[in-house]
Design brief:
It is built from 14 helices and eleven strands. The protein has 371 residues and is an alpha/beta fold. The site of thiamine diphosphate (TPP) has 17 residues, from helix 9 and helix 11.
Length: 371
C-alpha cells in the first residue's frame, strides 16, 4: 500500500536492477502521474530501456555513487519524506495485523507470518507460483539482500522445491524455507528425493488449500467458470468436476519420499512444529516418516541349501549335515533394512488452510470405482 501510493504520485522513478515485471508494476498501472519519467539503472540494456526510461547501463553501486554526487545538495521535501515514513509505518501495522488474524483454519498471511518469525535474519524464503508470491511481496519482511528468492519471471509452478535445493546448495550456511502451494507441490516435488539422498536440508512448508485457489479465483473475477481448480471427482450427475472431494494427502506423499513430515492445522501447531524440529523429537510430530530402502537380498548361498541362511544350524559349528542336499535356485527376498542415518534432515510442515474432509469423501458422490 505504502509503495503503491508513493508510486502513484511519483514524477521520477529510479529503477535499480528491475525488470519492471507485471508483478512489480501491476502490469504498468502502478505509476499514475501524467508525466512520470523513468531512469533505469541496469546491467542489461534490454531492461534499462523499459517504460521508455532513460537507460543507465551500469553496475548499480557505481551508478548510485555517480547519481548521488550529481544530486549532492538536493533532497525531496520534508513533507514528502514525512508522508513516505507515515505510509511505511501504517503498512507495517497492517502487516502485523495480517500476521495475527486468529483465523481458524489459518489465513495464508498468518502462515507467512509464522514462517517469517521462525526464519533467521540470513535465512532464505523460496516460492514461485500460486497466490503466495503476491502475498509474500506484500508481507515478507526481508532482512538480507539474499533472503528473498521468489520467481516472478514466469511464476513457474514446480520451481519451489527444486529451486530451494539449488539455493541451499549455493548457500549451505543459510536455512532455506520453501513455501509451496498444494498445486505446485503436485506438479513437481521430486527433488525432495534428491534432498534426502544428498543430505541437503530444506524446510518445506506445504500450504494446503485443496486446489488452485489463485487460478480458480482469478477465473471467477473475470467472469469465467472455474475448471478443475478444486480437487474434486467427476460427478456422474453433472458430468463436471464438482463431485466429492478427492482424498489427496500430500503430506503422506512427502513422507513416502523419505522426508520428515509434521502436520499443522493451527498457527500454534505450525510454530510448535518448528520447536519440535529444533529438538529433533519425533514424538512431537503427528506423522514422522523414516526412509526405507527396499532392496533385493539373496537368501541362497553358493551351492544351494534347503535351509534359510539365517537358520541357526547353518551357522552353528558342528551342526549335523542336512538330510537332503537338493539344489535350489537362489531366491530373492525383499527386506527393509534399518533406516539410514541422515546427514541433514529435510522436513516438511503441511499446513491446512481449509479444513475440508479429505478421507472417505468419495462416498459423497457415490462413485464406487474410487476407493
Ligand atoms: C507450470 C505452470 N502451469 C500453470 C501455471 C498457472 N497457474 C498459476 S498458479 C496455479 C495454481 C497454483 O496452485 P497452488 O500451488 O495450490 O497455489 P494456490 O493458487 O492454491 O495458492 C496455476 C495453475 C503456472 N503458473 N505454471
Ligand atoms: Mg492451493
Amino acid at each position: 500500500m505504502a509503495a503503491n501510493r508513493i508510486a502513484r504520485q511519483a514524477d521520477v522513478v529510479i529503477g535499480i536492477g528491475t525488470r519492471y515485471s507485471d508483478f512489480t508494476t501491476a502490469s504498468r498501472t502502478a505509476f499514475g502521474a501524467p508525466h512520470v519519467r523513468f531512469v533505469n539503472v541496469n546491467v542489461a540494456a534490454a531492461d534499462a530501456v523499459k517504460l521508455a526510461g532513460t537507460p543507465l547501463v551500469a553496475d548499480a553501486r557505481e551508478a548510485l555513487r555517480g547519481l548521488s554526487a550529481a544530486l549532492a545538495g538536493w533532497s525531496a521535501s520534508e513533507d514528502y519524506q514525512a508522508e513516505a515514513r507515515r505510509l511505511s509505518a501504517a503498512w507495517q501495522q497492517t502487516v502485523g495485523e495480517a500476521f495475527a488474524l486468529g483465523h481458524q483454519p489459518p489465513a495464508q498471511s498468518e502462515v507467512i507470518g509464522a514462517v517469517n518469525d521462525a526464519a533467521g535474519p540470513r535465512d532464505v524464503v523460496v516460492c514461485a507460483a500460486g497466490s503466495m508470491p503476491g502475498d509474500l511481496h506484500k508481507l515478507w519482511r526481508t532482512r538480507d539482500p539474499k533472503g528473498y528468492h521468489v520467481e516472478y519471471g514466469y511464476s513457474c509452478m514446480g520451481y519451489e522445491i527444486a529451486g530451494g535445493l539449488g539455493v541451499k546448495l549455493a548457500e549451505p550456511g543459510r536455512e532455506v524455507y520453501v513455501l509451496v502451494g498444494d498445486g505446485s507441490y503436485l506438479m513437481m516435488a521430486s527433488e525432495l528425493v534428491t534432498a534426502v539422498a544428498e543430505g541437503v536440508k530444506l524446510i518445506v512448508v506445504l500450504v494446503q488449500n485443496h486446489g488452485f485457489a489463485s487460478i480458480g479465483g482469478l477465473s471467477e473475477t473475470v467472469g469465467v467458470q472455474r475448471f478443475g481448480t478444486r480437487y474434486r471427482y467427476r460427478n456422474p450427475q453433472t458430468g463436471r468436476l464438482d463431485g466429492g472431494i478427492l482424498p489427496v494427502d500430500l503430506a503422506a506423499n512427502a513422507a513416502s519420499l523419505g522426508v520428515r513430515v509434521l502436520r499443522a492445522e493451527t498457527i500454534a501447531e505450525l510454530r510448535a512444529a518448528r520447536c519440535a524440529r529444533r529438538r529433533r523429537s519425533p514424538a512431537r510430530s503427528s506423522c514422522t516418516s523414516r526412509p526405507t530402502r527396499w532392496c533385493p537380498r539373496r537368501t541362497a548361498r553358493r551351492g544351494g541349501t534347503s535351509r534359510s541362511p539365517r537358520s541357526p544350524s547353518s551357522t552353528r559349528p558342528g551342526a549335523p549335515a542336512p538330510r537332503t542336499r537338493r539344489r535350489r535356485r537362489p531366491s530373492v527376498r525383499w527386506s527393509v533394512p534399518r533406516p539410514v542415518r541422515r546427514r541433514a534432515e529435510s522436513s516438511l510442515v503441511a499446513v491446512g488452510l481449509n479444513l475440508v474432509p479429505i478421507r472417505g469423501c468419495h462416498e459423497s458422490n457415490g462413485d464406487e470405482r474410487v476407493g
